[in-house]
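Any chance you'd type out a single protein's sequence alongside its tokenized fold?
>
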Amino acid sequence: MAAVLLALGVLAFVILVAAYVCWKRWIGKLKQFKSPPMHVFFGHSLFFPSDPSELLMKVRDWLLDNDKKVLLLLGPHPFFLTATPEHAMILLNSNRIITKSFEYSFLVPWLGTGLLISTGNKWRKRRKLLTPAFHYGILNDFAEVFQEQAQIFVEKLKPLADSGKTFNICTYATNCALDIICETAMGVNCGSQHDAEAEYPKAVLSMCALIQKRQVRAYLWPEFIYSLTKSGKEHNRAVKILHNFTLKVIKEKISKRKMKEEKVVEKKRLSFLDLLLDCHERGEIDVEGLREEVDTFMFEGHDTTASGIFWSLYLLGRHPEVLKKVQEEVDRVWSNQGSKSFLDMSKDLEYLTCVIKESLRLFPPVPLFARDTQDPVDLGDGLVLPAGSTFGIAAFLLHRNPDFWDHPDDFIPERFLVENSIKRHPFAYVPFSAGPRNCIGQKFALLEEKIVLSNFLRHYDITSLQSPDDLDLSAEIILRTQTGLSVKISKRK
């Protein structure tokens, strides 16, 4: 027995020594990168805060201390994080680095491998298939939905304007965006603005919160553990509600088409699903694919646009001089609308567009996005990222890089006037990503935000009650503030 134990001890020792030697060799290959102090075996994994707010500040500190580019090791796995446009251009322009990073896998139970998460040939086929859904004529149809829901948004805020009460604008903007995306995605009204407890929108919000919680807690990553927790059970219940709702709408629409009770050419307004059903009838996508893409559109289209709306309102509430200027433009454009479509009218809202873009610069909806590499990546200056690494862009800091932005923390919409944007590095500003995997719905999002915001600005003044230092920002799926955004509004005189 003693001999066996000795042999096992020697074997364990040899394995540990071999692992240590391999680790040192691996570290040697990465020594040209700047990197903060780390644990000998666990790398930087032990230094990642589980709290999303603390995580954002930790990432900021790592980048600022290492010339805005840093290599982090998650165990043996390299994660290169940058806030420089030169490196952003290498990643985002690549046709090879298109596989989303590990963190996106937590969305798969809900979204499947739709356009957001898929890679390779499936992603290329889906991208080509879905691009026509965002052309000019379709956006015009969507704009009518934006306007209808924006009017409800304005009406729901009226009692708060009358009372002068302080409230969280994020909640109202999110409910408005949920109703917009539900109707444009599926052609049904979720009623979020009328009933915040409605089952489907409540499940959407619950899913987003649960995914964010799971992403930053490594002990919840294994499926067999997560399924046993209270969060895991809530997650599975929400997935069931979401899938059942989407599939029910899909099957009802397919059935009506077969019975010739619903002809797309006769419909006044198309939804995203109607366009996908045309592809389904041509055999280009199956029912599961329909569900994946509709659910993906729901996920990507509500939180990001809501973020653009409430951060724009927050910043306008902090800058009354900008608020007055943009209201003057909105009043002028709406008074001259005539027979113009909402889409055409939105093109005249030039200063409001600058306001939205500047809001997206300071508070990008996705603060950090990352992809996995299949090949070595030459980053320049002698830096080569090994194959199998993760390559990430910290958009929150990229957009505040003082090498490319004067007074980077200040709200200055004029910096996005055409004459002030010509010489800017094209990858210094990427709120919708860029390159082949840029956001397919960015025109949709900007149009929605312009219509919702212009409706608000026609009716209300706004005052934000928190300074930037009071905001408890957190790096979740979407850049959020854990305190909400407290505002007061009043009817314009």
